[in-house]
Amino acid sequence: MSAQPHLPTPLPLTFAVPKGRILDEALPLMAAAGVVPDAEFHDKKSRALSFACVDSAMRIIRVRAFDVATFVAHGAAQAGIVGSDVVEEFAYPDLYAPVDLDIGHCRLSVAEPAEQAERPTAVSHLRVASKYPSLTRRHFEGMGIQAEVVKLNGAMELAPGLGLASRIVDLVSTGRTLKDNGLVETSVILPVTARLIVNRAALKTDARVAALVERFRALVAQRDAA
Ligand SMILES: Nc1ncnc2c1ncn2[C@@H]1O[C@H](COP(=O)(O)OP(=O)(O)OP(=O)(O)O)[C@@H](O)[C@H]1O
Ligand SMILES: O=P(O)(O)OC[C@H]1O[C@H](OP(=O)(O)OP(=O)(O)O)[C@H](O)[C@@H]1O
């Protein structure tokens, strides 16, 4: 009898998720698609960032939302879940977002102080505070305005009152944060939902990635039909 050829064990498929607010809505969908992290993932005291899965051929990494896209675009993770705001901001050519998961609904909007919005003036240049420099520049360019973006990572709403910028571009959900900081939404740049994202090369070369996309696709179709 001839010996079986020794085939290398494939590395676990790495699935990246953001650590914050999308996660609660994403976990049930992931579970239905067979992406189930082990108990340590839910242990608040654990400082681990990478977790085994019930399916030992997978692992989950938990990173910041913007970094989910970076890990997947560079092939360090093969798939993940992230908001379309992040997908559009980076526009990585190697990142493909094949499934709209219809969770994590919000919008990327321009906002400014209420009293300023009441007296609009024509301008050719603006200073805008945002975590989204690329989307911000593109939006204002489309209006013939050159936007100088002051990059902030949070608490954007403080910028106009403190003279850092005349406007902000930030995510809005209930509108409460804008209201409580004396700002009004003046235009919507992008409606946002969470997407399943995959690395394009991995999709072509790893059948497990294509199978994962099909499972998420089927789940979303099933939910839409219900
Ligand atoms: N009201 C909201 N504010 C911010 N993000 C929202 C909101 N509603 C939905 N989202 C989605 O959640 C994403 C942020 O996800 P999450 O909070 O999981 O990330 P995070 O890694 O904790 O973020 P950060 O890096 O800012 O700490 C946004 O990119 C967006 O797609
Ligand atoms: O319209 P709302 O329902 O008020 O939500 C919008 C707020 O939520 C997000 O901040 P988040 O709470 O994620 O904190 P962050 O400033 O750390 O991003 C976003 O940046 C807004 O500040």
From TrEMBL:
<comment type="subunit">
    <text>Heteromultimer composed of HisG and HisZ subunits.</text>
</comment>
<feature type="domain" description="ATP phosphoribosyltransferase catalytic">
    <location>
        <begin position="64"/>
        <end position="217"/>
    </location>
</feature>
<keyword id="KW-0067">ATP-binding</keyword>
<dbReference type="Pfam" id="PF01634">
    <property type="entry name" value="HisG"/>
</dbReference>
<dbReference type="InterPro" id="IPR013820">
    <property type="entry name" value="ATP_PRibTrfase_cat"/>
</dbReference>
<comment type="function">
    <text>Catalyzes the condensation of ATP and 5-phosphoribose 1-diphosphate to form N'-(5'-phosphoribosyl)-ATP (PR-ATP). Has a crucial role in the pathway because the rate of histidine biosynthesis seems to be controlled primarily by regulation of HisG enzymatic activity.</text>
</comment>
<keyword id="KW-0547">Nucleotide-binding</keyword>
<dbReference type="InterPro" id="IPR001348">
    <property type="entry name" value="ATP_PRibTrfase_HisG"/>
</dbReference>
<keyword id="KW-0328">Glycosyltransferase</keyword>
<dbReference type="GO" id="GO:0005737">
    <property type="term" value="C:cytoplasm"/>
</dbReference>
<keyword id="KW-0808">Transferase</keyword>
<dbReference type="InterPro" id="IPR024893">
    <property type="entry name" value="ATP_PRibTrfase_HisG_short"/>
</dbReference>
<dbReference type="GO" id="GO:0005524">
    <property type="term" value="F:ATP binding"/>
</dbReference>
<comment type="pathway">
    <text>Amino-acid biosynthesis; L-histidine biosynthesis; L-histidine from 5-phospho-alpha-D-ribose 1-diphosphate: step 1/9.</text>
</comment>
<protein>
    <recommendedName>
        <fullName>ATP phosphoribosyltransferase</fullName>
        <ecNumber>2.4.2.17</ecNumber>
    </recommendedName>
</protein>
<keyword id="KW-0028">Amino-acid biosynthesis</keyword>
<keyword id="KW-0368">Histidine biosynthesis</keyword>
<dbReference type="GO" id="GO:0003879">
    <property type="term" value="F:ATP phosphoribosyltransferase activity"/>
</dbReference>
<comment type="similarity">
    <text>Belongs to the ATP phosphoribosyltransferase family. Short subfamily.</text>
</comment>
<dbReference type="InterPro" id="IPR018198">
    <property type="entry name" value="ATP_PRibTrfase_CS"/>
</dbReference>
<dbReference type="GO" id="GO:0000105">
    <property type="term" value="P:L-histidine biosynthetic process"/>
</dbReference>
<keyword id="KW-0963">Cytoplasm</keyword>
